[in-house]
Design a protein that fits this description.
The protein has 358 residues and is an alpha/beta fold. The chain has 16 helices and 13 strands. Helix 1 crosses helix 16, helix 3 packs across helix 4 and helix 10 runs parallel beside helix 15. The longest helix is centred in the N-terminal third of the chain and has 19 residues. The radius of gyration is 20 Å and the shape is globular. The mean pLDDT is 93.
Length: 358
């Protein structure tokens, strides 16, 4: 029987990364299974992405759902172990840094199944971030490490990773962005919300920003100050929805909340926006390619290439308004380089290496 590659996805950030790899392996005739853990189960966080990205329906949806990190990861490991034992894949492909990623890597390692990590080597060096734990553990357990940027290779080398396991392939999420860019369309949201020609997009979901009441108060004050300067539309992540609503953030007349948006609508909004305020990782990369100023409300980033090459700046709640002013009046210098190998061919490079390994 031909070799089997099993892809594990679970959350919204995984899907744009997996889509080009699935497509490239399909062109090479590789037998594949797509497993969705159900970590993101809301239709707006999951199903719409499969439609927008042209992803095949998952062969298996484990339906794990929400829970604490321990509860969710344990449920995923139990379900994935059953799946791996039944399917006996030759290689498990995992994406990003969510709980589904580390759960699959742990199960594969314990069963002696080879694992490949797409987006390996990213480091924030902030152990308060659950994603940092997931990244480091997944990289330690994976046999193949696919890096999106040169700094990721440096981190892996410093951690003693065998160079034969590391591969600089570029960014498959950017493959998806470039493939679908001419279909981006945020006009429905613009019309429904009543946005003017100039507006900002915001996204917020990090525990450090929305879970601590004092931090949330500072964040809300900063966002209201931003809305004093420019209309802001914020697709509200299920995580933190109640806290943000109770904070009074949306009492500001120029602060507009929407439900979570699909891939094409959201990036359509971003592409036409004046600036983005975020605590997300992937949006730092997408704005870099789209040329949209990105102000990241975090003390660190695991994607420093978006600062050295792209449009990203790290800000605090206290400095956000000044940075917004700088973007709007043109005094804040914003880069316009695209990082190396963010060229739309990362999925092909990953598939070529996978086929060679198989």
């Amino acid at each position: 029987m031909p070799s089997l590659v099993l892809h594990v996805t679970g959350a919204r950030p995984n899907f744009p990364k997996a889509a080009p790899v699935l497509a490239a392996l399909e062109k090479r005739g590789v037998r594949q299974l797509l497993v969705h853990t159900g970590q993101h189960y809301d239709a707006n966080m999951s199903e719409v992405f499969f439609r927008d990205l042209g992803l095949p329906a998952p062969d298996l949806n484990l339906g794990v759902g929400s829970g604490s990190h321990a509860v969710q990861t344990a449920a995923m490991m139990t379900a994935l172990e059953e799946t791996f034992l039944a399917e006996r894949p030759d290689l498990v492909l995992v994406y990003g840094d969510v709980n589904s990623t580390v759960a699959a890597a742990l199960v594969a390692a314990k069963l002696g199944i080879r694992c490949a990590h797409v987006e390996a080597g990213l480091r924030s060096f902030d152990w308060s971030m659950p994603e940092e734990v997931n990244r480091v553990v997944t990289d330690r357990l994976s046999d193949l490490l696919f890096a999106t940027s040169a700094d990721a290779l440096v981190h892996l080398a410093r951690e003693g990773v065998d160079p034969d396991r590391m591969h600089f392939v570029g960014n498959p999420m950017i493959d998806t962005l470039l493939r679908l860019r001419d279909r981006f369309d945020g006009s429905r949201v613009v019309a429904e919300v009543g946005l003017p020609d100039e507006y900002a997009v915001a996204t917020l979901h990090r525990p450090g920003n929305v879970d601590d009441p004092a931090a949330l108060d500072r964040l809300v004050a900063a966002l209201r100050a931003t809305a004093d300067r420019i209309d802001v539309v914020l697709p509200v992540h299920p995580r933190g929805r109640e806290r943000l609503a109770a904070s009074g953030l949306f009492d500001h007349p120029r602060m507009h909340a929407t439900e979570p948006l699909g891939y094409l609508e959201f990036l359509g909004l971003v592409e036409k926006s004046r600036l983005v305020v975020t605590d997300s990782g992937g949006i730092q990369e997408e704005t870099t390619v789209l040329g949209v100023p990105c102000l990241t409300l975090r003390p660190n980033t695991e994607r420093p290439v978006t600062i050295t090459h792209g449009t990203n700046r790290l800000v605090t709640p206290d400095t956000l308004a000044d940075h917004v002013d700088g973007v709007l009046d043109g005094t804040l210098a914003i880069g316009d380089q695209v990082p190396p190998l963010w060229d739309g061919a990362a999925g092909e490079r990953i598939a070529g290496i996978v086929v060679d390994q198989l």
